[in-house]
Design goal:
Structural class: alpha+beta
Strand content: 25-35%
Order of helices and strands: HEEEHHEEEEEEEEHHE
Number of helices: 5
Helix content: 25-40%
Oligomer: single chain
Strand order of the largest sheet: 1-12-9-6-7
Shape: globular
Largest sheet: 5 strands, antiparallel
Number of strands: 12
Radius of gyration: 17 Å
Amino acid sequence: NAVLPPPEAISRMFGEYFILYLPRDIVSGDFYWMAEIGNLRYCAVADCTGHGVPGGFMSMMGISFLNQIIGQEKTLNAGEILNQLRANIIQSLHQTGKVGENKDGMDIALYIIDPKTNKCQYAGANNPLVLIRNDEAIVYKADKMPIGIYVKGDIPFTNNEIDLEQNDVLYTFSDGYVDQFGGADKRKFMSKNFRELLLEIHKKPMSEQRDILDQTLLNWHGELDRVDDVVVMGYRHQDF
């Protein structure tokens, strides 16, 4: 809680939003991060390797590096921030790609909004962005590689540019929700069902969306244990 952004700061930056944050243990390998520099609002939702204490350490490292990267004098786009984050993680964990060494890292969805121009940049490492507009879910796919050592580690992350419209709803999330086992057949919730649920509830007030997602997950896994940390963020774009 000490390193996560406080609700009043998020409200000031993003207005209408919700965050469903459900650590599996006391500390979490999932984290959310926001920052504001000049006209730009930065938002990231990430899923680190592991959960509990090891995941918590990775979360704190990710938050620290993101603050450091955007604090530089040069303004980077979303893809460039992920490139820099990957380089920092690889360097600090002394990853070389040798067999048997530490392969910790994180998956992340990062977007940057300029409310003056209604422009949004998005970059993702395994974690997509779902935008709902005119009752249609548009999925911006992530690059299929993590923040960390990887066989294609020299490929830069894609910077997607999106023109936002009034009342667009953006969702970013870790895989904890869609990978949760439950239901009559004790299967995973799955991405398709998750997108359909978001489409069904996206016009409701943000606090109500959070409660529906929370209760749906509880009903889904029932007596089964939670398998992973969960974080889901929703943001409704309004003219500032």
